[in-house]
């Protein structure tokens, strides 16, 4: 039970990080060095 709960939380965090990375790639300009989520998006 505890293992399943922890696994779900870890998977949820991984999905969130994955989505943030995709948003950062789509939101950042090609010439910009920072590929993570921009302050403009937040």
Describe what you observe in this structure:
The structure is a single chain. With 42 residues, this protein is an all-alpha fold. The chain has one domain (1-31). Helices cover 62% and strands 0% of the residues. It has one helix and no strands. The longest helix is centred in the middle third of the chain and has 26 residues, at 2-27. The mean pLDDT is 71.
Quick recap:
The protein has 42 residues and is mainly α. Helices cover 62% and strands 0% of the residues.
Features:
mainly alpha
Instruction: Return the domain count.
Output: 1
Number of strands: 0
Radius of gyration: 14 Å
Helix fraction, binned, reads 55-70%
Strand content range: under 5%
Low-pLDDT ranges: none
Tell me the major beta sheet: none
Transmembrane segments: 9-26
Keywords: Membrane, Transmembrane, Transmembrane helix
Provide the fold topology.
Blueprint lengths: L1 H26 L15
Keywords: Membrane, Transmembrane, Transmembrane helix
